């Protein structure tokens, strides 16, 4: 069962936090579950036990070829959340207790505002028409989301949303949510928090709309650093042939992943992402830190012909033809100077008009003419007498 979310859905299902008793995070288990694939939302049996250390994370990485099935690649860089009191590895039960104690429900990040939860940030992106989200729910448990898809429609700047400052508030387009509006800071945070739906056993299928604007704010580079695909998941032909060929045809960005983001937009390349918690020594001479790890995977059903050399050439050929057509049309329309514009659009006084004012003026002139004729006739008759 799938459901594409609309603004009305968030208003109807918004949490009523006033007077509500908060419950611990409903994580059924914090074991290393294999994240769900996009094409088949089924849970595989875990061979992990409660006695295993939470710091053990497999990093399976192989380049995808037509004869191999894509696997998750755990990114080597980890997102630091907080320093824990643990000076040695703990089991999963202890980690679960710690996570439920430090995080609010539906907010798996450090925060002191429980009203701005995952649903709030997801609503911002839907209401601002930045993304399209579809949640695929479990057939046997409608309250459980197996996996979700997200299509990026646009990544907005302050000007795009009508903000002057990052801290000013703008109302939601669809009123009725328990929070009146959001700031641009909220909008940026939404990209980093809306997708923290559930660790371990939930996955996101990310893609860009083909009309997604390529004018992308700088902070989105950081989003891509965490959630975006990594080089080891790409098939060899994409990484070694298609992408280098594509870069030769676009304005090269020497810093940041903008070229690769454009590549995904133009070639319609999706990817799969999942995340989970882990413990590790992140700071020197400090206890263990609670970290967030991200895993990404290639979507095996993507048609590689689309980003082949022939496919890329065809794309740029069509794009260049469209640009040429636009330029030709623009050149065929002559530009008018102010004098020509005034001649093309004469003032209302020079054009016949049937306005009430003109009708009144014409009527008065006719009455005046008849009055003068009557007076002339009267004088002639008087002279005749």
TrEMBL record:
<feature type="region of interest" description="Disordered">
    <location>
        <begin position="41"/>
        <end position="70"/>
    </location>
</feature>
<protein>
    <submittedName>
        <fullName>Uncharacterized protein</fullName>
    </submittedName>
</protein>
<feature type="compositionally biased region" description="Basic and acidic residues">
    <location>
        <begin position="369"/>
        <end position="385"/>
    </location>
</feature>
<feature type="region of interest" description="Disordered">
    <location>
        <begin position="1"/>
        <end position="28"/>
    </location>
</feature>
<feature type="compositionally biased region" description="Low complexity">
    <location>
        <begin position="49"/>
        <end position="70"/>
    </location>
</feature>
<feature type="region of interest" description="Disordered">
    <location>
        <begin position="337"/>
        <end position="385"/>
    </location>
</feature>
<feature type="compositionally biased region" description="Low complexity">
    <location>
        <begin position="346"/>
        <end position="367"/>
    </location>
</feature>
């Amino acid at each position: 069962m799938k459901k594409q979310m609309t603004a009305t859905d968030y208003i109807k299902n918004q949490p009523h936090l006033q007077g509500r008793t908060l419950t611990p995070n409903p994580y059924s288990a914090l074991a290393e579950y294999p994240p769900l694939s996009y094409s088949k939302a089924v849970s595989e049996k875990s061979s992990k036990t409660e006695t295993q250390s939470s710091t053990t994370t497999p990093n399976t990485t192989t380049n995808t070829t037509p004869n191999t099935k894509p696997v998750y690649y755990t990114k080597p860089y980890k997102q630091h959340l907080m320093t824990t009191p643990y000076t040695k590895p703990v089991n999963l039960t202890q980690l679960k207790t710690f996570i439920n104690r430090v995080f609010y429900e539906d907010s798996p990040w450090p925060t002191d505002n429980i009203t701005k939860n995952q649903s709030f940030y997801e609503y911002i992106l839907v209401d601002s028409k930045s993304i399209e989200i579809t949640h695929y729910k479990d057939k046997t448990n409608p309250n459980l989301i197996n996996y979700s898809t997200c299509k990026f429609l646009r990544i907005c700047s302050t000007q795009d949303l009508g903000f002057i400052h990052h801290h000013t508030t703008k109302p939601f387009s669809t009123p009725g949510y328990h929070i009146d509006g959001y700031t641009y800071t909220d909008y940026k945070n939404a990209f980093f928090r809306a997708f923290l739906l559930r660790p371990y056993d939930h996955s996101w299928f990310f893609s860009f709309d083909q009309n997604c604007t390529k004018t992308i704010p700088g902070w989105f580079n950081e989003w891509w650093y965490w959630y975006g695909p990594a080089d080891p998941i790409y098939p060899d032909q994409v990484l070694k042939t298609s992408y280098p060929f594509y870069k030769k045809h676009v304005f090269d960005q020497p810093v940041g992943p903008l070229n690769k983001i454009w590549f995904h937009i133009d070639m319609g390349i999706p990817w799969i992402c999942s995340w989970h918690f882990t413990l590790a020594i992140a700071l020197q001479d400090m206890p263990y830190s609670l970290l967030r790890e991200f895993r990404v995977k290639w979507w095996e059903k993507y048609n590689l012909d689309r980003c082949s050399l022939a496919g890329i050439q065809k794309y740029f050929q069509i794009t260049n033809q469209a640009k040429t057509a636009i330029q030709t049309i623009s050149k065929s329309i002559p530009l008018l100077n102010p004098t020509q514009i005034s001649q093309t659009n004469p003032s209302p006084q020079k054009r016949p008009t049937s306005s009430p004012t003109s009708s009144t003026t014409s009527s008065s002139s006719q009455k005046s003419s008849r009055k003068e004729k009557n007076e002339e006739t009267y004088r002639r008759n008087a002279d005749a007498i």
